[in-house]
Fold these 4 entries.
Entry 1:
Amino acid sequence: MQIEFTKMHGLGNDFIVINAMQHPFILSAEQIKFMADRHFGIGYDQLLVVEPASLSDADFRYRIFNADGGEVEQCGNGARCFALYVHAKGLTKKTTIPVETSAGIIELAIENGQVTVNMGAPEFEPDGIPFEANTRADRYAISINGDSVDIGAVSIGNPHAVIEVVNTDHAHIDTLGPEIETHSRFPNHANVGFMQIIDRQHIRLRVWERGAGETLACGTGACAAMVIGRRQGLLDENVKVDLHGGQLMVSWADEGTPVFMTGPATFVYEGKITL
């Protein structure tokens, strides 16, 4: 079986995009995992699938699979790549595109090579994240190997834990990241953001992504860090987020309103792989 794909990235967070508008997407988790291997396959953080929408108020269905083969609810950097892909491939002429995801409908707007994603309103209620807690709080203490670690918890269509650190360069990403990702209080596992606050309109961020490990950028992670910082009274309404792969702009007014994320997306190459 031969699979055609497009390689793209959003600030170094890299993807392959597969057009399944005419033919059903039938790859297994093992095939997705094989293609994600950077030595024997193509190499990517996530695989994005373009499918016909099942909802009348969406133009496409957007599916996301992590490098480990598992399907997930949302990916902000991938959403920007998705928007440029369907526009450049002539699948739509619109510059504002409603897209169906498993977490609900999101809106993608293309302008001057940048894409703004309406990520919807963040979910802070523990049951909606999901996160195990008796009551909602802006900060939670969780136990990691006998130590207490303070986190914020939120869903941006997918679950996130956010930790404030003094300096992201010295954060214990490789140890704390996987411990929190698979913590028992996150029944669906979690993405883990390590946030350094520069000032009220500027943060640095590194993210350990669920099912992928640390990536150069994470769009939902940038949104999660911003809204947690804002809920904790540390950030303003518009924030620059510096990631290893580049910078995103994130805006959020207050609870019950959507988060907006703006940044670039880049085509890398077209290819085919035989499975």
Entry 2:
Amino acid sequence: MLDTFKHQGQRRKLVELLREKGIPDEEVLAAIGRVPRHGFVESGIAGAAYEDRPLPIGDGQTISQPYTVAAQSTLLKVKPGMKVLEIGTGSGYQAAVLCELGAKVYSIERIRSIYNKTKELLDDLGYKARLKYGDGSAGWRMLAPFDRIIVTAASPGIPAPLKEQLAIGGRMVIPFGDRKTQHMGVVTRKSKEEFIIERKGNFAFVPMIGKHGWKD
């Protein structure tokens, strides 16, 4: 995949736009500035890759708006070496940003065609995320606990399995609400039984389909 001076210039402009929109975390902005977003969208719409809007990736799914990726990544407060579970691999763009932040990324995707395509893409780009095909709403119990969990699809609530798989002291960012509009939730696990839930603005995501999410 070519990453031209033009693409790099478009990324710099995108980063500056996100900064102007209020994204405060310079490490997140730098990570976004390194990820070639044009490689995560269909070639026919690659010209729009650095616009601050979601784009279709097939099967009714989208690559999230860069502002949303930046906002979730900022709320997640990732540090290098942290073990991060992503629910909803999608295009792989969020996973790539997390890798650029130094996280050990584990990601689950429920749509086989997207899983296959994204796994190959991340491998080709050198991002060492570990991917799984399955129901993300159930998490990845065999590899738990996780320092951080990020959910990139709308949930009707906060799935119990994800809370259970969050390490004590860990942090989860998850949009939850109805199918049209969700609160961006930040869940902090203080102890085995105590969780603090904060709401950080309204967003709109595709629904999280699964046993502990919305029904297909």
Entry 3:
Amino acid sequence: MGYYTPGGSMSNTQAGTSGGGLASLNFTSQPNTALLVTSQKAKNSSLLGNMAGKTITATFTVNGTDAFTYYGQPDACNTPASARLYFETSNGGGFDYTHYWWSNPASAVLANGTLSVSATVDPASWSDWNGQSGTSVPAGFAAAASNVTTIGLSFGGGCFFENGVGTANGMGGLVLDSYTAN
């Protein structure tokens, strides 16, 4: 799980497993919840490695609040707080925008209930760190999709896909019911 700290850096912590799902998290009153991801190949071998052409689907349940906020709200894009599929590849050769990918346009507006997001890992369905479609940077997309090292959900709103969300009253949670790649 990734939370933004007041200084703007990412603080990672292990997600809980309460609620009968694969993982769970509680939202805070600050718009700082940014990621729910895994990089554990031993537990999730079907979710890491070559994902090219696979369809990724996440189903999750949100409960306890309908009043979500996002960091930087309001902004010019005025898109509500939402969840998207996310993956990244290794930064072993140094940082590159094409190491980080978000499903686009596939997303789910955060609200109470059971929600689902699904996208095929093809260039037209994903945007990189710099907002470029995979069709604009096909070599970068192909390299990342063929060597996924971290995968999960991101939380954001407005003009950004991972700027962090929270709830108006600091209540509410999310249970990841399933996350598959076929």
Entry 4:
Amino acid sequence: MLGDRTNIEIASVPYEIVRLDDPEVFRYPFLYLSEPGFLDLTDREVANLGEYIRRGGFIMVDDFRTGKMLGHEDEIDVLRRYLKRAAPDRELVRLNSSHPIFHCFFDIDTLEMDPPYEIPEPPQFWGMSDDNGNLQVIASYNNDIGDYWRYLDDGDKPLKYSAKAVRLGVNYVVYALTH
């Protein structure tokens, strides 16, 4: 999708699975972290996560939801706890549609969308920035942008939100590569 929508050249293998404790993680300017509510990171993984962030890496966090529905800790609190251990001087804050990440390639004027599965609360977008105000973490909470990508060709999700998910993803990559 990214190569089709932009002039950004992508590798023939568009993704690699890399463990957070592997030094190879530093070769990648963009990480996609799915289901962070189930994180159980080692000290080494937390240290690498912090180093990745300090070196200017960008992380897209996706596919997590309110824990109240699942009967356990809110999944955003799990993410927040690990990010605080990895980068104690930074905060995860709620974003609104005026943030530059939502306007760097496609102009996304509203963040309202239905998640691809049943949850009782609307999607939220959270972010963590560096000392210069550049976003380094974008988290799609109560949502699953990746599911919209995965099912785009199947046609079983609303096209309106699948198209929005593609636009969000392109914006995330363009922002990550230009900030």
